[in-house]
UniProtKB/TrEMBL annotation:
<keyword id="KW-0963">Cytoplasm</keyword>
<comment type="function">
    <text>Catalyzes the attachment of alanine to tRNA(Ala) in a two-step reaction: alanine is first activated by ATP to form Ala-AMP and then transferred to the acceptor end of tRNA(Ala). Also edits incorrectly charged Ser-tRNA(Ala) and Gly-tRNA(Ala) via its editing domain.</text>
</comment>
<comment type="similarity">
    <text>Belongs to the class-II aminoacyl-tRNA synthetase family.</text>
</comment>
<keyword id="KW-0648">Protein biosynthesis</keyword>
<keyword id="KW-0479">Metal-binding</keyword>
<keyword id="KW-0820">tRNA-binding</keyword>
<keyword id="KW-0862">Zinc</keyword>
<keyword id="KW-0175">Coiled coil</keyword>
<keyword id="KW-0547">Nucleotide-binding</keyword>
<dbReference type="GO" id="GO:0004813">
    <property type="term" value="F:alanine-tRNA ligase activity"/>
</dbReference>
<keyword id="KW-0030">Aminoacyl-tRNA synthetase</keyword>
<keyword id="KW-0067">ATP-binding</keyword>
<feature type="domain" description="Alanyl-transfer RNA synthetases family profile">
    <location>
        <begin position="1"/>
        <end position="476"/>
    </location>
</feature>
<protein>
    <recommendedName>
        <fullName>Alanine--tRNA ligase</fullName>
        <ecNumber>6.1.1.7</ecNumber>
    </recommendedName>
</protein>
<keyword id="KW-0436">Ligase</keyword>
<keyword id="KW-0694">RNA-binding</keyword>
């Protein structure tokens, strides 16, 4: 079953159960300052769960474009290292706004997986929140999952409600206990069952999370009861496709096969020669073209702050991986036609914006290709000393002068088992910020012109750094 058929089957199944099919919302949340990017299907329904907004329906189903590259849900560092994480992915979901609750949600999920997608029941494992006896009983007594394959997951991650089975959108917002469904990819893949010490392998893959929305968490950490118990579920389309296409990695599903082929072609033509088709770098590139393109579609452009900086970090990371494979001229934007071919029907906004996305990416590539070679030389020289840690000054210089976001430097280092002195980097950053402020004040006092200031201060390319005051100096 192709990914597009899986998406269709999911939506039609829930439509047959009285759900309204609702279009994906943009990856840039329109009116939610607490969110960097849309990270789950429920985001667009947040106010409905909270009781602030009413819809004409009490059941909905979506295939939602999601980005997890910042904030509470950040999988950027996982990409290229696990078989299951993307920065951009599609989340299939069904939602009940004070309509059905645990019984129906669990039974719908089971029916869809075992009868429509025909997954063998014995390959499925489930987890429930440790205190949720009700969900446990439904799985065990009503659905008939044997106790050996139901795992209770407690608050073992640093305090109450810090469990994998207590889902939160972010530090604030709707949340509640959840039950997750895992698929066992079989003994030839490494990894242990959920809840075991080696659960993070690629053998037992979490495919679907069913959240029983019951609370709204406010900034003070207090859990307020929602007006009505609700249901929010999310299943990664790519993970389900891997299962249904009998492959063990998301990168082997139909949509990624096409993207990987195009990425290889683009890298090869840009200097890669005949690069290794199985390289993890190609997977990173194929992943990142999706995240970059969909954020640009929704209006983000690469920049030094906020969403623009996340986009820049993802794009430059992809470019660096192409460089690693031998590319010496822009290649990344050339994957766009393949992406549009794969996803343009499901998301027409992508097809519409193709020319703009291509141009934005091409410009970012041209900019970064001007400095990447010298930056990589500096980093390679530092790594050649055999150090186990790159010092903060070097990381800062790479960032400040060569446009290497620090996580890009860390990504290169990680490949060689080396870390980056983040504290040293932060200190160098803070020092430069203080110097810049002082210089700014001095110049202001002296009534000097500010030409060239923008380039002089391109070093503030750090998400966590407070640029507001510095910017104010120039604006004034
Ligand atoms: P994991 O534990 O594997 O990181 P998660 O528990 O963080 O997943 P949820 O927040 O429960 O994920 O999201 C619901 C579903 O979305 C998951 O069950 C999975 O199928 C899918 N999903 C989550 N993160 C990713 C990702 N980075 N790439 C692809 N699919 C994902
Ligand atoms: Mg996760
Ligand atoms: Mg999980
Ligand atoms: Mg989960």
């Amino acid at each position: 079953m192709k990914a597009s058929e899986i998406r269709h089957t999911f939506l039609k199944f829930f439509e047959s159960k009285g759900h309204t099919i609702v279009a994906s919302s943009p990856v840039v949340p329109g009116d939610d300052p607490t969110l960097l990017f849309t990270n789950a299907g429920m985001n667009q329904f947040k106010d409905v769960f909270l009781g602030f907004d009413k819809r004409a329906y009490s059941r909905a189903t979506t295939s939602q474009k999601c980005i997890r590259a910042g904030g509470k849900h950040n999988d950027l560092d996982n990409v290229g290292y696990t078989a299951r994480h993307h920065t951009f992915f599609e989340m299939l979901g069904n939602f009940s706004f004070g309509d059905y609750f645990k019984h129906d949600a669990i039974q719908y999920a089971w029916e869809l997986l075992t009868q429509h997608f025909k997954l063998p029941a014995e390959k499925l494992w489930v987890t429930v929140y440790s205190e949720d006896d009700e969900a446990y009983e439904i799985w065990n007594k009503v659905v008939g999952v044997p106790a050996e394959r139901i795992v209770r997951i407690g608050d073992n991650k640093g305090g109450r409600y810090m469990s994998d089975n207590f889902w939160m959108m972010g530090d604030t917002g709707p949340c509640g206990p959840c039950t997750e469904i895992f698929y066992d990819h079989g003994p030839d893949v490494a990894g242990g069952p959920p809840g075991s010490p080696n659960e993070d392998g690629d053998r037992y893959i979490e495919i679907w999370n069913n959240v029983f929305m019951q609370f709204n968490r406010t900034e003070d950490g207090v859990m307020h009861k929602l007006p009505k118990p609700s249901v929010d579920t999310g299943m990664g389309l790519e993970r389900l496709a891997a299962v249904l296409q009998h492959v063990h990695s998301n990168y082997e599903i139909d949509t990624f096969v096409a993207l990987l082929a195009s990425a290889k072609q683009a890298v090869d033509a840009a200097g890669g020669g005949d690069c290794d088709a199985d390289s993890a770098s190609l997977k990173v590139i194929a992943d990142h073209i999706r995240a970059c393109s969909f954020t640009i579609v929704d209006g983000v452009i690469p920049g030094n702050e906020g969403r623009g900086y996340v986009l820049r970090r993802i794009a430059r990371r992809a470019i660096r991986h192409g460089y690693k494979l031998g590319a010496r001229v822009p290649f990344f934007h050339k994957i766009l036609p393949a992406l549009v071919g794969q996803m343009g029907d499901a998301y027409p906004e992508l097809r519409q914006a193709e020319a703009r996305v291509t141009e934005v990416l091409r410009q970012e590539e041209e900019r970064f290709f001007q400095t990447i070679e010298r930056g990589m030389d500096i980093l390679d020289t530092a790594l050649a000393t055999g150090t186990r840690q790159i010092d903060g000054e070097t990381a800062f210089k790479l960032h400040d002068t060569f446009g290497f976001p620090v996580d890009l430097t860390a990504d290169v280092c990680r490949e060689r088992g080396v870390t980056v002195d983040q504290a040293g980097f932060d200190a160098a950053m803070a020092r430069q910020r203080d110097q810049a402020r002082a210089a700014g004040k001095f110049k202001m006092a002296a009534g000097l012109e500010y030409s060239g200031v923008a380039t002089a201060f391109h070093g503030y390319e750090h998400l966590n750094c407070d640029t507001s005051k510095v910017v104010a100096v120039y604006v004034d």
